[in-house]
Amino acid sequence: MSAAPRPWIEAFAPATISNLGPGFDCLGLAIQGAGDRVRVRRSSTPGVRLCRVTGDQGRLPTEPEANTASAVLIELIKRHAPGAGLEVELDKGLPLGSGLGSSGASACAALVAGDAALGLGLGHPQLVDLARDGERIACGSAHPDNVAPAIVGGVVLIPNLDPLRLISLPAPRDLWIAVYTPGCEVKTADARAVLPKQVRLDQTVRHAARLGLLVHALHVGDLALLGEAIVDELVEPARAHLIPGYLDAKVSAIEAGAIACSISGAGPTTFALAASEERATALLEILEEAFTHNGVAGKGWVDRVGAGAQITSKQLH
Ligand code: HSE
């Protein structure tokens, strides 16, 4: 007699904006307006079966070891539930190669659903650590600054990887974010390949000082200081040429009064910060105009700092 099917558990994980200027590979925030959904259910067959992938126009790998959603579940089972079996469905809401933490969102949604399906009750550090494995598979680098905010929500600093430490920072209430994804793609691996292998000491000192200022600005809720802090002279200059129109867009947004404007993660998504919804909406139009003028019209929206990955439903189907 075959066992009754187990319920599908669905989780949502948000898009993330990582780096935030001087926080390369150690700082990121979750946003509200976009993300990925993953459904997971227990199976009596050991291992992980990737049953369905939608929303990716057939571009993502479907082998369980190569797709971040299923790959992190293989690792989850290996570390925490040897011999267990899971079935997975991935519904991509985020564009690939966008700089919005797309691979990380898939991994985080899968882990939160998988953790619930197996009844493990893992904590944030364990989930983030597993999700970093997905980043390694997606782009060859296990950076934590997308997956940490995608799991924890809000603004997260990752000051240490071994042992992994996650520090939640306060997000100013009046912070609004214009998010624009131009109509081009940047592979994270390519965006990392152009980075300098060594940087000058004076630049490093300024970078460290800005990261300190950024943390202070968040704690005191001072958006002007936050704007001063979101300057990146190490990574952004090496990547700007990968995004057609980026420098135009940035200059226009800053001239129009943006608190800050920078590349989201590895790009091409560009974000601009404002102190009100109206200002953010005006900045969004400016970003749209600049990228359209440069032949890479895309999609944008106004967003806010949001929550981390969550279970959205449990159902039989
Ligand atoms: N911190 C990483 C980078 C994020 O900028 O390469 C990539 O999503």
Instruction: Provide the structure class.
Output: alpha+beta
* Low-confidence runs: none
The rounded distance between the terminal residues' Cα atoms is 20 Å
Number of domains: 2
Ligand names: L-homoserine
Question: What do these coordinates show?
Answer:
- With 317 residues, the protein is α+β, with helices and mostly antiparallel strands.
- The protein folds into two domains: 8-169 and 305-316, 2-Layer Sandwich (Ribosomal Protein S5, domain 2); 176-303, 2-Layer Sandwich (Alpha-Beta Plaits).
- The chain is built from ten helices and eleven strands.
- The protein has helices at 68-80, 102-118, 124-139, 147-152, 188-193, 201-220, 223-229, 236-239, 246-255, 277-293, and strands at residues 8-19, 23-43, 47-54, 85-91, 155-161, 164-169, 176-181, 260-263, 270-274, 299-303, 310-315.
- Helix 1 packs across helix 3 and helix 2 packs across helix 3 (124-139).
- It binds L-homoserine (HSE).
- L-homoserine (HSE) is lined by residues 18-19, 24-25, 101, 143, 145-146, 188, 191-192, 265-266.
